[in-house]
Amino acid sequence: MKKLLTIIGTRPEIIKMATLIPELDRAFEHVLVDSGQHYSARMHAIFFEELKLRSPDYSLKVGSHRPAKQVALILERFEEVLLNVRPTAVVVQGDTNTALAGALAASKHRDTGVRIIHIEAGARSFIRDQPEEINRKLVDQMSDLLFASCEEDLDNLKREGIDGGRIRVVGNTIVDGCRRIAATLDGTPEAGRYGLEPGSYVFATFHRQETVDDESRLHAVCEALGEISSRIPVIIALHPRTRKMLEQRQATLEGPGLHVIEPLGYRSAVSLLKDSRLCMTDSGGVQEEAAVLSIPTLVLRESTEHIRYVKAGMHVVVGTDRSRIVNEASFLLGNQKEYDRRKNSRISFVENTTARIVREIESFLARPDAL
Fold first, then answer.
1. Do 137 and 202 have their domain in common?
2. Where are the beta strands (DSSP E) in the chain?
3. Does 173 score more than 70 pLDDT?
4. Which residues are the active-site residues?
5. Are residues 166 and 194 in the same domain?
6. What number of helices (H) and strands (E) belong to the chain?
7. What backbone phi and psi angles, to 5 degrees, belong to 32?
8. Cα–Cα distance between 134 and 210 in angstroms, integer?
9. Pairing of strands 234-237, 202-205
10. Residue pair 92/118 in contact by the 8 Å Cβ criterion
11. 282 and 216 in a common domain
C-alpha cells in the first residue's frame, strides 16, 4: 500500500479536505499533519469536531507569525515528519502558507522518490502581489500531479508551461462537503438566533490582506456595509484578522441593521449562507459555497480566481469602493427580475470529486514513471 502524507492547517483546508481525508485513510497508508497555521478554536478545532475528522497524526503547532517566519517554521517542522514517515507522496491543498511549505519541503527530497500532489491547482486571480496567488503558482510549479477544479484552471496551468499530462480536471471537493452539510441542516435556521427570517438578510465576510490591511479599503467596506444595513439586515462573521485590523486602523462597523458576530462553525456558516438573500465576501471559499447554494454574491475584491461564477452571471466583482458596493447591492436588492436571473444562473459542477481524486492518485502512483 502506498504511503501518503497530507498537511493541512487552516479553516479552508480543513473544510475542503473533510470528505477526502477518510477516503485517503481507506485507500492508502495515510498520515495526516496539522500545521497549526490557524490556531484559534473558532478557526480550527471546531471544524475538526463538526466535520467529524479524526485527530492528526502530527501537530506542528506553528501558530501566528509574520508570513516568511510562518512558512519557515512549517518547513522546518514538516521536514522532520517527512523524514520520519518517508511517504510516496505529499498532498497539499490550495494556496496557504501551509501548502507552500509542505510542497517546498517535499521538493527538497525528490531524490528519495517523494512526489507532490496539489489539490485545487491552477486557480488564478492574476494579481501578482497577492500572497495566495504567489503561493498557488509556486506550488503548481513544484507539483507532479495537479487537480484542477475546472477547464479555466486547466488552461491557466497550460499557459504557464505545465505539462497537461500532469493535470486532471476533477471539480472541487467543497461541492461535496457543502452539499453534505446543507443536507443535514435541521429545520431551525441559524438566522433565527438573530431574530431574522430566511431570505431577509445579507451574509458578509471579509478578511483578506488586500482588503483589511489597506486603511482606505477597510474604511470603505465598513462604511458600505453600514449603509446597506439601513436597508436590509447584514450579518458579519468577523474574522480574527479583521477584528485586529479594525482596532489598529480605528475603523468601526456601525449601522442600524448590522449584526457583528464571532467566527462560525461550518454548520452555522452554511446555514446562514444558505438562507441569506445576498452574500458579500472577499473569501474564495465562501464564493464557492455561495455558488453551490445558489446565493448571488458581491465579491469584495478587484478580481477573483473563481471567474466562472462571474461569467455564469451569479457573482459580481465590485471591488472595495464604497459607492460601487452600495450601488450594486441596492440594484440587486431592488430588482427582483435581475435577482432571480442571477440566483437561477446555470452553473455546472463536476460530481463526485472526492472519489475522482482518490482514483486518480491510485492510478498515478501505480505508474512506474511516477516514482
1. no
2. 3-8, 29-34, 58-59, 89-93, 115-121, 145-148, 167-169, 202-205, 234-237, 258-261, 278-281, 297-299, 315-317
3. yes
4. 207
5. no
6. 17, 13
7. -110, 130
8. 14
9. parallel
10. yes
11. yes
Mean pLDDT over residues 52-73, rounded?
A: 93
The rounded Cα 314 to chain-centroid distance in angstroms is: 18
CATH code where residue 107 lies: 3.40.50.2000
Going 319 to 322 to 328 to 329, the CA torsion angle's sign is positive
Tell which residue, 62, 137, 60, 64, has the closest CA to residue 94.
137
The residues near 61 (Cβ < 8 Å, ≥ 6 apart) are 36, 39
Does a structural domain hold residue 85? Answer: yes
Q: Which three cell numbers stand for residue 11?
A: 479553516
Q: What is the pLDDT of residue 42?
A: 60
Cβ(89)–Cβ(361) below 8 Å: yes
Runs of H (alpha helix) within 185-320: 209-212, 215-228, 240-248, 266-274, 284-292, 307-311
Q: Is 72 helix (H, G, I), strand (E, B) or coil?
A: helix
Residue 56 domain-assigned (yes or no): yes
User: 209 with 115, same domain?
Assistant: no
pLDDT (tens digit per residue) in 266-275:
999 999 999 9
Question: CB under 8 Å to 177, separation ≥6 — which residues?
Answer: 15, 16, 18, 19, 51
The pairing of beta strand 145-148 with beta strand 258-261: unpaired
pLDDT category, 98, cuts 50, 70, 90? very high
Average pLDDT over residues 301-314: 95
Cell numbers found for residue 222: 465598513
| Contact criterion met (CB below 8 Å) for 273 and 264 | no
Residue tagged 517546498 (cell numbers): 104
Range of the domain at 48: 3-172+351-370
**Does residue 181 fall inside a structural domain?**
no
Q: Is residue 179 part of a domain?
A: no
Residue whose C-alpha is closest to residue 152's, from 293, 286, 305:
305
CA dihedral 36, 240, 177, 54 (to 10 degrees): 30
- Shared domain for 232 and 319, answered yes or no, is yes
Count other C-beta atoms under 10 Å from residue 163's C-beta: 10
DSSP string, 150-173: SHHHHHHHHHTT--GGGEEE---H
